[in-house]
Amino acid sequence: MNVVVTKSYEASCKAAADMIAKAIQANPAAKLGLATGSTPLPIYKELIRMHTQEGLDFSQVRTVNLDEYCGIDASHPQSYRYFMNENLFNHVNIDKKNTYVPSGMGNLEQNAAELEAKVFEGGTPAVQLLGIGSNGHVGFNEAGSRLTAQSHVEPLVETTINDNARFFEKREDVPTQAVSMGMKGILAAQSIVLVATGASKVEAIRGLVQDDCVYPQNPATFLKLHPNATIIIDEELAKQAGYKA
Ligand code: PGA
Questions:
Q1: N or C: the chain end with fewer CB closer than 10 Å?
Q2: Packing angle between helix 9-26 and helix 41-54, nearest 10 degrees?
Q3: What are phi and psi of 228, to 5 degrees?
Q4: Per-residue pLDDT tens over the stretch 78-92
Q5: What is the number of the ligand 1 atom nearest to the C-alpha of 139?
Q6: Which atom of ligand 1 is nearest to the CA of 137?
């Protein structure tokens, strides 16, 4: 696992966007593993800028997303399918048929099985983009005494529901379950890039940088097992998490 420390969150996002753009330039039909949440927004903005100003070509790119809330459909403004369309897909020349966000409606077990198949179909992602929860979750693999390997339906824990309540009118509106890629699918990516910023991520990042151990109570620590994972944090977060290069 490499830790990259940048001057600012903006610089972290630029570095992550450059890694994704390089994967597309190396293979125009690259498969990308994508994430939602606030952290990746500037990364997607930068990819859109590269598309409009520099001709970064998404016409053959394929994508698979980490997760989707259960109980809200693609037309719901807080669904991850809606998020991806609004924040990336509608602004680049990607063929939406080549994009996959799991469904959180209908038969959830079947949706999880479909997501698992999509992660591996035609080869695993060249790059898997990740944010990190304040509890260390990646995708919706929640902190706990154990982690699930395969894509599955995950009950969301209190911290996650509280963290995500800001996106909904009322806390009670936050879905309590999600379909999520499991640790196996995440770790199967050819490379992983995780971006984090802000005081709420200090403890989760400390777990990543403090030692060489993995903890199901901090699922992101499993990235230490990956041969090509990069954690991008800004100076401020590095300092607060006690990271020394
Ligand atoms: P955030 O979420 O980017 O909105 O902080 C990250 C996550 O929960 O994975």
A1: C
A2: 50
A3: -140, 60
A4: 999 999 999 999 999
A5: 9
A6: 9
